[in-house]
Every structure is written in C-alpha cells, then in structure tokens.
Amino acid sequence: MNSSGMNHYLEAAERSAKWHAGYKAAMKKCRFDTIAVHGLYSMQEALDYNQGSIIEPIYMSSSQAYRDSDEMEAALSYQIPTWCYSRIGNPSMYYLEGVLAMLETYGSDLDASCCATSSGMAAIFSACEPFLSVDPKRPNSPMNFVATCQVYGGTFQQFAIRKQQEKGSEWRKVINSSDIREWEKLIDENTRFLYGEMPSNPGQAFFDLEAVAKLAHKYGIPLIIDNTVGSPALIRPLTWGAHIVIQSVTKSLTTSGFGVAGAVIARKNLILKIDNETLKADFATYIKALPNRDNGPNISPMNAVLTLNDIRTLRSKMDLMSRSTMKVAKYLEQHKHIEQVDYLGLESHPLHKLAKKYMILVDSEQDELYNEKVNRYGHLMSFRIKGSIQDTRDVFDAFQRIWRATDLGRIKSVATIPAISTHQQQGEEARKIADVPPNLIRLCVGAEHPDDIIADLDQALAVMDGKKTISTSPEFSAGGASSARLRKN
Ligand SMILES: *Cc1c(COP(=O)(O)O)cnc(C)c1O
Q: N- or C-end of the chain: fewer Cβ atoms within 10 A?
C-alpha cells in the first residue's frame, strides 16, 4: 500500500468534510421551504463540479473513475467521499438523501441520514430486514415483530407472506393501535422491532407516536414509522422519538407521479439492545453501504432528480391539498348516499384529537397567511357508500375528473376501491380486521379547485338516484387518434 499517496486524498477528504459540515449547518438554520428548495446542493458545488448547473445533476453513469490506485483504494475502503458505483450510490441520489434527512429532522437538533431506494417496498424491506438476522448468541431463538394491522396492502403482503410465512418471523398484529397497552402486551424478548403506519392507508388509523416511541426505548428495540401519507411537511416521527422513518417517495413527495421511489431515514447513534455497532452509529449509511450494496434495491439517478424537483414545493402542496380534502370531506359527510366519511380532520373522527397533536403544517406560525400553528390532515380520506357493492362500483365508475387508479398523493385527484385493488390479496378476514369494507372508496384529493372535485362527486353520486346518464367517449382524440369503437369488422 502506498500510504503517503493515500494520505493526499485522506487530507483532502477531511478538508472537504469540514466544508460540507459547515454548509449543512448553515442550511439547517433555514426554514423548511428553503431546505426543500436547495437541500445540500450549493452554488459552490455547481460551479466547481457541474458547469454551473442550477439544478442538481443527473449522472446516468454506472460508475465513477478514480485518478489513480491510491484514490481508488481510499474510496473503496470508504475512507473518502465516493459514490463508486450506481448500485451503491450516485451524486443525484446523494442530494435526494441529504434533503430528506434534513426535512424529516426539521425543527430539532437530531442528526439523521438517509438511504434512497427504488420503491417504498424496498425501503420497508431495507429498514426491517437488518433486525431480523440470526442472533449468534441465541441462534435458535424465534423472532417476532410488532406492527399495526392497518398497513398498506403491499406492506401487509411483505409482512404476512415474505417475512412470516416464508421466513418464520412472526408478525404480531396490533389491532387497535391507539391502545398503548395492546402494543406492550405483544412485546417480548424475541421482539426485534415495532412498526406502525400513520395515518394508515386507507383506514386513517392513528396512534400516540410519543407513547409508542417510549415503549420502544424502554425495550431497546427500534420503532419504524411509515410516514408516507403525512410527509415531513405535516409530521416528523423522528422528532417524536421514532428511530427510523420510511417513505414511499412515490406518493406525497413525488406529487407529479413521475416514477416510483422510496427512502429510509434514520437517526444516528441509535440506542438499541443489539450488538451491531456500525448499524447503530449510522443506520441509513450502514444499509446503503452494506446490505443494500449486496441486495441492490437502491434508487436510479433519474428518479432521484425527478423527486427532488417535486420536493421543493412540498409544504405549500400539502397545505393546499389538505385544505381541499377537508372541504371535500365536509361535503361528503352531509351527503344522503354516504354512510361514513373517514378523515382525521373531521371532528367526528374518533382519532381527531390525537391527530391534532401531531399533524401540524410545518412553519405555519411563520407563514403570514396564518401566523399561528395550524392543523393540516393531508390528502388521504375515504368514504363509504350507503348501498351495495354494486352501488359502490357504479359511483366509482361514474367519476369523470377523479382518476380511477391505485395511487395517492398525486397533483391530480385519484380514487380506488381498496377491497378490489390495493387490499385485495390479503383476503376478507384481514380486510375485516383492518376495517376495509367493500363499500369503501379511498379518495386522494389533488390540487384542482376543490369545487370541481365536489361537482364530480356530486354527479357520480347521482347514479344512486338513477338520474345519471353514462357519458360517451369522442370518436377521435384531440391528438387525432381514432378510437377502437370506430373500427369496422
Ligand atoms: C404506496 C405505499 C407504500 C409502498 O410504496 P411503493 O413506492 O409503491 O413501493 C408503502 N406505504 C404506503 C403508506 C404506501 O401508500
């Protein structure tokens, strides 16, 4: 080893680390919107490395070249900053990770890091799997994890089939997650982590995050929170004591709908009863450099930059979409064909008071429109049709402005019937426990004028009165393509 040669690079890395730490510290003092717009991408870096480009670069390159063998050796032993190979890291990915770590810890002194992944499911896998490894001291001990039963359909399958059925890690389901005693009763010495989704998709389950975090700390096990629905603009679980947050970056964070992505954001220096010091020191960097290097679920540079662009306006979008959702929820609540509306923002929701403690529009007290802390409850709601499964489908099929798709957090309003889509595979029994009945429509209100969404709902619900006529499609699209109906056979 030519150590004097390597020293040259190590010294430069030290100077560079100092510069970046200073830049990050200055950025951390800025408001949420400023961090969301700029993240860790600086004018200095743009001028020195990126031809002055004011937007973060997209390096589609598979790998990074090194000046000489010394630099290569220092890089591959992770002694100097490097991205090395796009399966492990990439400059575009780095900027996304930087901004997400800062936003999820905003308003606190916490230091966190992030690992961006190719999807939300890859993030959940990457966050949970390291805790389900065999304990060398007790190689034959069983493993379990305690998680809310009201979770996203994909999460349900990953937990029930991949982890429990195929790998034998028992999923202990918390049925009523707002009951803290239920969580504690399920924990024993073989519990590897606690997991919760809040507000849950589609059921709006919600729990006392601070109390569950206290339980996790008491037992020395990590609390992992799926914060997809609220996003850091409305709720930041790390600041309430959670150890790790996962995001389906696909949703609230990438409102435009350009692509699928995920992220794991974790506090540094985790205090846990497990023996892996590297893991505890910096969990997100650990999974990025080690298990994810070997398993390969990290994000592509293109998706990283597309989502960065959406994150810049996260706070104002979450505010607008939350206000519109509230208006739509209030409209539906008084409608004669609606049996029930589930939205945490409604005072009628049994968990409204609890949600009020946690779901606050970030920096609203510094926003001259509000000048005080205001509650915002997000874009996700659901409602139940007072009628049969067929009635529910008829209303759903009559939407003209609201898109029928299994998606959420979009700039466009989107609706689905979870029982036949996102939550179809888990079966009727599990849907019953999670309260996902077949007459439930999940609606995510976008950034359209809310009155136009209400008008669409109004005309769709009119199907139930038998007044509605089904609209026809035009024979030609505006782009000139003729429809299949025109074909002569
Ligand atoms: C969509 C979603 C996921 C999964 O994310 P993908 O990006 O689709 O893999 C996880 N949790 C919640 C709450 C979701 O809505």
A: C
Cα(406) to centroid(ligand 1), Å: 10
Q: Which uninterrupted H or E stretch holds 33?
A: helix 32-38
Report pLDDT digits (tens) over 267-294: 999 999 999 999 999 999 999 999 999 9
Q: Spelled out in words, what is the top-level CATH class assigned to the domain 90-311? A: alpha beta
- Starting at the edge strand found earlier in the chain, the sheet holding 223-226 runs 112-117, 262-267, 244-247, 223-226, 191-197, 143-148, 169-174
Ligand 1 cavity residues, CB under 6 Å: 119-121, 152, 154-155, 197, 201, 226, 228-229, 248, 250-251, 260, 262, 408
Q: Is the pTM of this model over 0.90?
A: yes
Query: How many Cβ atoms are within 10 Å of 163's Cβ, its own excluded?
Result: 22
How far away, in angstroms, is 125 Cα from ligand 1 center?
A: 12
Nearest protein CA to atom 1 of ligand 1, as residue: 248
pLDDT in tens, 71-94: 999 999 989 999 999 999 999 999
Answer for the pair 224, 155: CB distance below 8 angstroms, yes or no. no
CATH 3.90.1150.10 intervals, the chain? 314-483
Model confidence at 487, in pLDDT bands (50, 70, 90)? Answer: low
Within 8 A by CB and 6+ apart from 452, the residues are: 401
Distance 20 CA to ligand 1 centre (A): 32
Q: Which of 128, 151, 152, 260 to mutate to test the pocket of ligand 1 (most atoms within 8 A of CB)?
A: 152
Ligand 1 pocket test, pick from 198, 234, 248 with the greatest ligand atom count within 8 Å of Cβ, gives 248
For atom 4 of ligand 1, which residue has the closest CA?
120
Centre of ligand 1 to C-alpha 301, Å, is 20
CATH of 314-483, one of 3.90.1150.10, 3.10.450.50, 3.40.50.2300, 3.30.2350.10: 3.90.1150.10
Q: How many CA atoms lie within 13 A of 343 on its CB side?
A: 30
CATH 3.40.640.10 domain range(s) in the chain = 90-311
Which residue's alpha carbon is nearest to atom 7 within ligand 1?
120
pLDDT reported for residue 467: 60
Q: Are 146 and 172 in contact (CB under 8 A)?
A: yes
Share of the chain above pLDDT 70, in %: 97
Q: Are 384 and 338 in contact (CB under 8 A)?
A: yes
- Rounded distance, CA 145 to CA 489, Å? 59
Q: At what angle do helices 91-104 and 3-28 cross, to 10 degrees?
A: 40
Tokens of 183: 């969580």
Inter-residue contact 380 to 444 (CB < 8 Å): yes
Backbone angles phi, psi at 294, to 5 degrees: -85, -30
